[in-house]
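ok posting inputs for the phosphoric acid mono(formamide)ester job
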Amino acid sequence: MVKDFIDTNDFTREELLDMIELASSMKAMIKKGGRYPQILKNKTLGMIFQQVSTRTRISFETAMTDLGGHAQFYGPGTIQLGGHESIEDSARVMGRLVMGSLLDIMMARVDRHKDVVGLAEGSAVPVINGMSEFNHPTQELGDLLTMMENLPEGKKIEDCKLAFIGDATQVCVSLMFICSKMGMDFVQFGPKGHQITDGGLQVDTDIDLLAIGEENCKVSGGTITISDDIECIKDADFIYTDVWYGLYDDEEEGASYMDVFYPKYQVTMDMMNYAGPNSKFMHCLPASRGEEVVDEVMDSPERSLCWDEAENRKHSIRALLAALGKRTPLNDEGVEYSAKAELHAALEALEQL
Ligand code: CP
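and the output
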């Protein structure tokens, strides 16, 4: 397994499924009243946030506490990162702090993907991408866990179809990555100009996003469809959407997005039923109720998975921290180290107590 978690495309299908299995085991154990293995005792996670966050910040911070470690929060504008100090210098300084045992894992939510890549290249410790304009890989893990928990009867993950409705946000792109990696059928139902093939929201348009997904499909047997014809969502097991204004937080920008997407791309119960009578609703959150989704769908106990999905951010991030955190200079078990084996042994030991 590679040192950093910047992009799920750096991992094999099996490695990603191992993390999900680990996340499920810990989740099940704690729901039964068990205790978390303190495998990250005396370890620190440095959390860099260039943008606001609820789910990602809380998940990382509490997951670190669960495993006996500590998280330091560096909010927007509170540290030098690619502003007054170059990204390379910041990474170098953080590397020296790491050698002084102050930081054992780093995560960063960044405006520019190249900054989290630069941090990873410049530091000895594992670096986790907490979302960039390019992708949102920890969201992918939580979403995969949620889908695995809600597989339609008789289906495996590779038999499922996910339809993303709306704008080619970084979450949309990330879903294409994880679905194609798993061998699923991925669909983006969105207007021209806002499709993955138009470059999505990414800043670096040199990257051919679709080509990455298609390479995954060659290995996994998955498919990718991008269309503005609603027919493409037929038989989808999972209907997923994200806000229409993407990374833009300007009110006027949001209003113009309404003109492009409303009402064709709003997820309503009619749309859910058009996909299929048992289709499930997913959303990375936060949602703009009344825009990309209506209350009836979001609050439906039978159809909506979005609250489980939010909880699963923490369960999956905990497994990721366990897997990457055991590879730091302070406790390096070598390339053969298996977080899965160690965690399962720890879980079994706790169950004997
Ligand atoms: N889904 C997600 O990343 O939520 P936050 O922005 O609240 O972290």
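notes: The longest strand covers residues 44-49. Confidence is low (pLDDT under 50) at residues 328-339.
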